[in-house]
Amino acid sequence: MRLRRGGHRRTAGPAGSVLHSPGRQTNQALLVALVLAFGTGVVTIAVGSPRGAWIAIGHGILGLAVVLLVPWKSRVVRAGLRRPRFGRWLSLLLAGLAVLTLVAGIGYATGLLRTLAGLTGMWWHIGLALALVPLVIWHVAARGIKRRRTDLSRRAVLRVGLLGASAVGLYAALAGVVRVLALPGGRRRFTGSYETGSFQPDGYPPTIWLFDTVPIVDRQQWRLTIKDRTGSRALTLDDVGTPFTSRAIIDCTSGWYAEQDWTGVPLSTLLHPGPKDRSIFVGSVTGYWVRFPIDDLDRLLLATGVAGVPLSAEHGFPARLVAPDRRGYWWVKWVDHIELQTTPPWWQPPFPVT
Ligand SMILES: Nc1nc2c(c(=O)[nH]1)N[C@H]1C(S)=C(S)[C@@H](COP(=O)(O)O)O[C@H]1N2
Ligand SMILES: [Mo]
What is the mean pLDDT of residues 143-160? Predict the structure, then answer.
């Protein structure tokens, strides 16, 4: 017979109930909180406009619910460690990484851990969370969680409510501490990002999503290929047109944002949509690309300069996209082709893959 979590329910947990298995309930609550924290975390990465702020707040509350479950889970873990089992070290690794993920998340949110080993606390938080995914899947598959009818008892619902309310309370208390102690965390944007190098052409960090390298683009050789209702044409940098200035915030997933005055041309002056066009494909010299809904045409800018000077190579010379209210990974650098397409805007991976 395989031992499952439910197997050692006789170890009394803090709830001290004989009727229920505190271990099993702790495990179930923890799994649900972890899955929801992960889901809201992924969505928070994509949130760029204040309408999505509640997702980031929800992510914080769910993370704190996980924190609140730590004392309960450590009892379960201690009981489990008494019997030698296969995968014990993997489980301990999982526990260690989970704690570090929480430390990095809370450290970055409060401002107590802005950077570590040259990488932002947010970067660590995301990296550790991704490393946890296979471990959690293995752990649940190997140990299992038995479901029982009592799982949805009134008592269980009460406990979940209590946990939720405590997590909200802890979130509010933490926000209060950050404010009273004037910690840097109080100055974050709703996305969780910190201000870095606004209004300076080189004050904000050049950032690569995953695997790109900075291309050195020759000004004379560079062409912007445009495809729209009127056909296809190639523009030189001079053809791109009269600069126009627009103030917008670039906000990167790695946890920084910068407000800048961008100079460039509105995409709507470069492209002429046909009646069936549904998306705007923007591609880089490097192969990096994203697809916008056609309705974004009026908001996008093809920038050639920032803070009064031409873009540097790292920041996208000769031309990069400015996509207000969208996170940094939409702001394609080293743009060399833009096409209006009938393809639906959702026809792309949820995040760029290069
Ligand atoms: N071609 C290309 N464009 C890109 C990226 C990339 O890796 N390749 N990274 C994106 C990400 S994740 C961000 S946050 C911004 C960063 O812009 P910056 O380097 O000017 O700060 O560029 C975006 N544009
Ligand atoms: Mo980014």
Answer: 76
Of all atoms in ligand 1, which is nearest to the CA of residue 212?
A: 7
Given a contact cutoff of 8 angstroms between Cβ atoms, the answer to whether 263 and 247 are in contact is: no
Instruction: Spell out which residues have Cβ within 5 A of ligand 2, the ion.
Output: 207, 252-253, 328-329
> Is the pLDDT at 211 greater than 70, yes or no?
yes
Superfamily, domain 195-341: Oxidoreductase, molybdopterin-binding domain (3.90.420.10)
Distances from the Cα of 275 to the Cαs of 199, 272, 278, in angstroms?
A: 39, 10, 9
Domain map (residue ranges) of the chain? 2-192, 195-341
Ligand 1 atom at minimal distance to the Cα of residue 311: 20
The model's pTM is: 0.89
223, two tokens? 């062409």
* DSSP-derived pairing of the beta strands 119-120 and 115-116: antiparallel
Residue 262 Cβ contacting ligand 1 at under 6 Å: no
